[in-house]
Amino acid sequence: MEPMPMPAAPPASSADVRVPWHASLRTRLMLWVGLLLALLLLAGFATAFYAARERVIADAEARTRYEARQAADRLDATMRSVRVSGEAMIELSNRVTLTRAELLEAMEAMLDANPATVGGLVALEPGVLADRAPLAQYVGIAARGVPDRDLLADGYDLAGREWYQRTLQATAPWWSEPYFNETAGGRYMTTLNLPLRDRDARRIGMVSLDVPVQALSSSLESLRMVAGQRTALFAPEGTIAVHPERGIAFAHDLPGYIASAGRNDLAPMEAARAQQRALQFTHSDPRSSLVRYSVLQPVGESGWTLQLSLGRGAMLSGLDSAMRMLGLIGGLVALLAALAVLRLARRITVPLTELTTSAGHFANGEFDWPVPHDTRGDEVGVMARALERARDSIRQQLDEIGRYAAEQQKLQSELDIARGIQMSMLPRDRDFASGDIRYRLQARLEPAKAVGGDFHGHFLQGDDRLWFVVGDVSDKGVPAALFMARVVTVLEVATAASDAPDRVLADAARHLSENNETCMFATVLCGVLDLATGDLAIASAGHDAPLLRHADGRIELIPLESGPALGFDAADAYAVWRGRLQPGDLLFAWTDGVTEAFDGDDLAFGEQRMHDAVCAADGAADACDGMLIAVHAFASGVAQSDDITVFGIDCTSQHGQAAWSMALHVPGERGRLADALAGIEEHLHANGIDKARIHDVQLIVEELLCNVMDHGAAAGADAMRLDATIDDGRIILDIRDNGTAYDPLTHPAPDLDADLDDRPIGGLGIHLVRELSQDARYHRDDGWNHMRVVLDATLPPT
């Protein structure tokens, strides 16, 4: 349908557009521009405020960096003094041969001379001292609350300690992580460990010096006196030794604190700490949205790092009093400007408000509401007259839109009816049996529009000749649907009067080329199957050759030479391929909507993916349903560009198990539940199952399928499969879905004696499954929920 022409508004006259200078709103606004200078003054105050704010922040950040460096230097001096004491002890032991007592006295003197240390360990391997005995003596400073301790006398396994072995292997002193030391008065300590070497560089022992963490923390006390300033101290491996929040120090390392407290804003600091490099950055605490400026400063070469941070609010606290005065002045200026703007608004906006009121009535459909000020000579008058013209134009457009909407609704209704008629023309899936051989014929069609040009069909000729056709009409939509109806009719008539597919296509070509002024055409695959022998004869009019999957899994593209499509000039000859469909074989045909389905990157589905889907299919139904699932999953939401049709015939022997299967989308194919129940009924009835038992099976299938359809999407499911097998006097139902693992059999049995109002919702369906079945089991298999229900094929005696 062509769009309705839009009525043109009458052109505006020059008298409506041009406004005399003395009546212009511009002239009136210029009379008040002096009052608006107050706004410029306010802007100046605001500019000064922001400039001062940035300067204060810059100064505070520079001070924070300076204080962080100074504090790190103080800590480094303390730690270097400890290291100097330890190295002096080592140098003494290397230069002078000391007895056990002299060595301990020297150690005590070194510790006493350094106020940061409270004790230390001297450990020597056997054979170092003159008495050849090992030494492991902890020397404590009694005045600092730490006693001496002979570790060997206490049975302490010094050689088995990781820190001892690490020190023996070390090439340089190293600081330990903080630890709680009850011997040293219940305090947290950190230890400097230094390896001992003899003159031949052999490892002979170690010296360690204990420093209370409080001794390091006390040097940071002055930093805590600044309001809003926070300090933290991290050991070499990230343990938090000092932290402003209670319960954090010694309980977390920095990565663990970031993870547990959700402090992702500190991630850059952890990376810098691990690399022992300085860092300055601004970050926001996600818990309080407080903005802070932090400086991370390594403490010399000790491996320790110091963090000093200052809150943005504390930086700007000194600016408050000045800003109050600035705000007061700005407020007075703003008040004067507001009074000026108010007076200006009263002069200008009153007529605009009245015009806005009229426009609001127009928006509500009240197009008879009057438009004021349409006689004025200024811009307001021009706007009023434009609004009047717009009102009249909108009124006309609404009338046109109403008529157009009615016609569109009628057209959509007709398209829906046409779709229903077209789909009803297509035959349903059927099974055919001949002796011990069963043929299952399955087809699926999904138009790209309301109606389409793809088709499939089958026609039974006599008792044992089954004709089938699959085709694709050029173009899409209503024209293709009409031509498709003609093609199907012509083919059905031709198959009734022919005994070979090439003759059917030749006859159809002659009829369809007559009076084909639209030059439409259709590609058609036509075949005939002898149900008694399985013999196949197939011919193609411009259509892709089908696939034949043999019982051994081998897939063959039938070598079929294609003739011209139907609808052009009449053709007399079409090549025929002849073969046989044997038990276990599957014949699969399609239209190009399958191979030419595109994903978001404009990549086609292609023949290889189609071959893979056919290879994995379990029969004709699974091949058709699985192909649609694979195509839609590949397209991943991209609009369907062409009609899709898939068609399959499989051949099975009726000896042994009798099986039936169906695949469905979740939850989009809820409407196919009736097809599943009808297919189950047809399959069981064909295998001699009692009608009452078929009813039980249908109840179970409906309950389990509805559970997946109703709740599967929320659990991540998008596909499910139903298999029914008759074997050894049993009916076996297998229902699979790829949702989150869930066992419905864990649902408690309902209390059937309780009142309905007191009984909880749910559980009755699973109770019904348990009661009707002989066995019901659930297991999880390779990402799929698998429910198996087993019933006797015959009803038990009553």
Automatic annotation (TrEMBL):
Gene Ontology MF terms: kinase activity; phosphatase activity
Keywords of the record: Hydrolase, Kinase, Membrane, Phosphoprotein, Transferase, Transmembrane, Transmembrane helix
A Gene Ontology term for the protein's cellular component: membrane
Residue ranges constituting the HAMP domain according to the UniProt record: 346-399
Xref: SUPFAM superfamilies: ATPase domain of HSP90 chaperone/DNA topoisomerase II/histidine kinase, HAMP domain-like, PP2C-like
Localization per Swiss-Prot or TrEMBL: Membrane
InterPro entries: Bact_Sigma-Reg, HAMP_dom, HATPase_C_sf, HATPase_dom, PPM-type-like_dom_sf, PPM-type_phosphatase-like_dom
Pfam families: HAMP, HATPase_c_2, MCP-like_PDC_1, SpoIIE
GO biological process: signal transduction
Segments traversing the membrane: 29-52, 325-345
Identification of the protein by name: SpoIIE family protein phosphatase
Origin species: Thermomonas carbonis
